Amino acid sequence: MSKVIPIVRGEQFYLPPRSLKADAWDTMPVAERAFAWLELMQQRRIVRPEGVVLGEQYYARINHGRWIADCLCGSALVVSPDDPRYACPECGYGWIKLVFPDDVDAVEDELLSLAPPARNWWHDDDPANPERPQPSAAELILGG
């Protein structure tokens, strides 16, 4: 029987260095772990955004078996439904609400039969979704 490779979430991706205990970052919110991890990997200080961007949201998606969110600047991070926030370490864009599907586990379960590189999923409402459902001509004419 083959081992099932789970969909990767931020808490599995952003792990502390071996010099720390394996649970050293367990109390740190996942969105903030990304900054700590990137600082270690890049050996530089990364300033965390202070403010929340009101009225804006990004859509989380699954890309090659990882939950990610994309920034407007072209950067992306591995994210988690357990901490639905995103801030960009590259351009410094502030904390933004992430939208995940209503049933995260069902989406993940649906993809587990595929090889990790084929595990891709977009939210239907995400404007960047290449397969976003399009309104019918009647819906466009009638406005809904």
Task: Describe the overall structure.
With 144 residues, the protein is an alpha+beta fold. 22% of the residues lie in helices and 18% in strands. The chain has 4 helices and 6 strands, in the order H-H-E-E-E-E-E-E-H-H. It has helices spanning 10-13, 30-42, 104-111, 137-142, and strands at 52-59, 61-63, 66-70, 76-78, 85-86, 95-99. Strands 1-6-5 form a 3-stranded mixed beta sheet, with no helix packed on it. It has a 3-stranded antiparallel beta sheet with strand order 2-3-4, with no helix packed on it. The radius of gyration is 17 Å and the shape is globular. The model has no long low-confidence stretch (mean pLDDT 92).
List descriptors.
144 residues; 4 helices; three-stranded mixed beta sheet; alpha+beta
Calculate the terminal CA-CA distance, rounded to whole Å: 49 Å
Radius of gyration: 17 Å
Poorly predicted ranges (pLDDT <50, ≥5 residues)?
none
Total DSSP helices: 4
Count of beta strands: 6
The overall pLDDT average reads: 92
Q: Please, what is the oligomeric state?
A: single chain
* 3D shape: globular
| Strand proportion | 15-25%
Class of secondary structure makeup: alpha+beta
Q: What fraction, in percent, of the residue positions are helical?
A: 10-25%
What string, H for helix and E for strand, traces the elements in order?
HHEEEEEEHH
Order of strands in the sheet with the most strands?
1-6-5
Summarize the biggest pleated sheet: 3 strands, mixed
